[in-house]
Amino acid sequence: MLRYFGSFWSLVCGVFLLTLPLHAQDEVTFELKLSKEKLGINERLKVEFSMNKDGDNFTPPPFEGFKVVMGPSQSISSSWINGKRSFSKTYSYILVPTARGKFTIKQATIEIEGQVYKTLPKSVVVTAAVDKPNDEKSVDDIADESLHLVAEVSKGSPYLNEAVTVIYKLYVSPNISVTNYRPLDNPKYNNFWSQDIPVTKHTAQNGTFKGKPYRYVVLKRVVLYPQKAGQLEIEPLSLEIFVDVPTNRRDFFGGRIYTQTSKTVSAGKRTINVKSLPEAGKPANFGGAVGEFTFSVSTSKNQLNASESLQAMVEVSGKGNLKLFQLPELELPSSLEVYEPEYNENVRTNINGMDGKVTDNYTIVPSFRGKYPIPSITFSYFNPKTSRYVTLDSDEINIEVLEGPESTESTSSISSVNKQLVVPTGKQFHFIKLKPNLTNIGSQTFFGSNRFYLLLFAPLLLIPIAVFSFKKREALASDIEGNKIKRANKLAKKYLFTARKELGNKDAFYVALEKGLHNYLKAKLKIETAEFSKEKITSILEEKQVNGADITGFIALLQNCEMARYSPFSDVEMQQDYAKASEVISNLDKQL
């Protein structure tokens, strides 16, 4: 009996010994490791979260009191030693302290094999800045000192609608070399009209930064036209730069070994003070033009025949915000048939702003013979160099129609002057038939019939209608705001039609689409060009209780129009944007 009991106990002990290493091997570990528990405010802290089994849904702690300058970076190691598998996975962060004091790196969590594991929190003490002249600088320290992104602004206090140039330069110390970069956050330029100037070639140039020799590269150039007065912020440009940093190690041949790292640099926010245009001396017909311009009105011909056409061109050329104001309208005699003007622009945007010309091309068709004057019109603009308004007048033009029918007024006046005595010959009535062979058409007579009374009283009914129509036309003519809305509505339709024709031509398509969207808003919301900003548009549409999806779609279209200046867009994307614009405008029409 004892012999059997001893055998049974030996079997149990054997099973326990075999099982013990298996459980020990299956134990999951998830640990927090710190490079140091006490550091100066000018030092860096490396934080690692390590585990011995692969997991999912890793959630780091908030890192209160620290700023993440690098990470998370992930490393995995796996090996087989004597038939046993060794696995390790690590998430690493590089932190810099934001204040002095005692801080706690709180728990991180991860899910491994369906269970959630947490690290133990650890405390870190941040002291005053430490002097470490003899310490060896890390790769990150060298990258910090050797890279600087700077935004150079041409004017700190421009006028409203005056061009401002922003140039982004990356200064690089000769000690390191940049291998690549990628944008992390592009500025939105709210309250500005913006035009990106492409940088075709990144050429390194020699320069200085804070008195030290550096090389710099121009990464981005943009021209801004402020659309609002006051303190305006230019959002920062943020980049991730990949650099090769030399170490103190040497290879077999004595060459220095380089280590690659990445660093996030930002140009920082810039604030400019935008001055309002002065009210003193502002002309009544001022339309928002700012710059230096010339103004002219010309015609393709001065003499023609009736039913022929001529072209009258209103042209403004020079330097300034050429795309951001409307041209003055021609005042033509009512006897001339005039078609809606065709707007053309030949504008180049360079580092100094817009340069070129814009024109309104009118097609005019006279119907009668005579002389028709095109009176002089005025154009006003503000010159920021002299801080004064300038008013230009066009020349008066006379159009002579040589051949064609005369108007009713001219015919009656000529016949009253050239009256002649008619001498009867006795045969002037020989064409009248004395026996016309008339037949009876019925018992009803014209006098006293319904038709008779209708024609009798019709003028009395038409007189109040004519008076009402005249007053209506007069009211419409005096409704300046309403006429602006109608004109903006026509321009919106025109530019959307132009955008459809320019599908496949990225630049022309998005320029026309953006103008169509802007003019649609001017027609529907009664806001001026100076008030255009995404925040303003969103606020007004929300006040009108427009569906949130439609507001988001409209803002997305405006952002695509801005991004198209410096990003490639395919034909499919253009077709999708045009279809989206039609859908959004249709939805807004129903709600507004």
Describe, in plain words, how this protein is organized in 3D.
- The protein is an alpha+beta fold.
- It folds into 4 domains: 102 residues, Sandwich (Immunoglobulin-like); 136 residues; 111 residues, Immunoglobulin-like (Sandwich); 108 residues, Up-down Bundle (Four Helix Bundle (Hemerythrin (Met), subunit A)).
- It is built from 9 helices and 30 strands.
- Strands 11, 12, 14, 15 and 16 form a 5-stranded antiparallel beta sheet that branches.
- Helix 5 runs antiparallel to helix 6, helix 6 runs parallel beside helix 9 and helix 8 runs antiparallel to helix 9.
- It is elongated and about 140 Å long.
- The N and C termini lie far apart (98 Å).
Task: Please write out the topology.
Elements: H1 2-26, E1 30-34, E2 38-40, E3 45-51, E4 56-59, E5 66-81, E6 84-97, E7 101-105, E8 109-112, E9 115-118, E10 122-127, H2 139-146, E11 147-153, E12 164-172, E13 177-185, E14 192-197, E15 205-209, E16 212-226, E17 230-234, E18 238-250, E19 256-266, E20 270-274, E21 291-299, E22 303-304, E23 310-320, E24 336-338, E25 342-350, E26 353-366, E27 370-374, E28 378-383, E29 388-393, E30 397-401, H3 408-417, H4 450-478, H5 480-501, H6 506-525, H7 534-543, H8 548-563, H9 571-591
Parallel strand pairs: 2-10, 22-30
Antiparallel strand pairs: 1-3, 3-6, 4-8, 5-6, 7-10, 8-9, 11-12, 12-16, 13-18, 14-16, 15-16, 17-20, 18-19, 21-23, 23-26, 24-26, 25-26, 27-30, 28-29
Keywords: Membrane, Signal, Transmembrane, Transmembrane helix
Organism: Flagellimonas allohymeniacidonis
Transmembrane segments: 452-470
